[in-house]
Amino acid sequence: MKLELYHRWHCPYSAKVRNFITINKLDQQIKFHEIEEDMRAEIRLENLTGKTRVPCLVIDNKPLLESQAIMDWLRDNLLGGNGVSAH
Ligand SMILES: N[C@@H](CCC(=O)N[C@@H](CS)C(=O)NCC(=O)O)C(=O)O
Questions:
Q1: Please, are residues 26 and 74 in contact by the beta-carbon 8 Å criterion?
Q2: pTM: predicted TM-score of the whole model, two decimal places
Q3: Which of 53, 70, 71, 72 to mutate to test the pocket of ligand 1 (most atoms within 8 A of CB)?
Q4: Whose CA is nearest to atom 14 of ligand 1?
Q5: Is-contact 64 70, C-beta < 8 A?
Q6: Number of helices (H) and strands (E), helices first, in the chain?
Q7: Residue of 49, 55, 54, 57 whose CA lies nearest to 1
Q8: H/E element holding 6?
Q9: Distance CA 5, CA 83 (A)
Q10: pLDDT per residue over 18-36, tens digit each?
């Protein structure tokens, strides 16, 4: 399964998802794209979602928006329903 997180350093919702990923030691399983640093990533995000909103988790080329939905998905699919919450 290919997992990618589109994010912005200055977005608090992105930060919350990144913190969740770090706290739960999932960094190695996810490729990160900072859309202000990588214009091609921004274009790809826009092609996938019709907008440039972050955070967006792309799961095997299917986008999932909304920070809470992303953390819920990670918890259910990578952490067996457990996991430490992030703030
Ligand atoms: N409810 C969303 C809010 C996400 C959000 O507002 N992201 C901002 C950056 S902090 C954004 O990408 N705004 C640009 C846009 O909506 O196109 C979440 O929890 O993920």
A1: yes
A2: 0.96
A3: 53
A4: 53
A5: yes
A6: 3, 4
A7: 57
A8: strand 3-7
A9: 18
A10: 999 999 999 999 999 999 9
- Span from the CA of 12 to the centroid of ligand 1 (angstroms): 9
Q: Count the Cβ atoms, other than its own, within 10 Å of residue 83.
A: 18
The amino acid that residue 31 corresponds to is K
Please write the tens of the pLDDT for every residue from 29-72: 999 999 999 999 999 999 999 999 999 999 999 999 999 999 99
Alpha helices in 1-87 (DSSP H): 12-23, 39-49, 67-78
Domains and CATH numbers, the chain: 3-78 (3.40.30.10)
R_g over Cα of the chain: 12
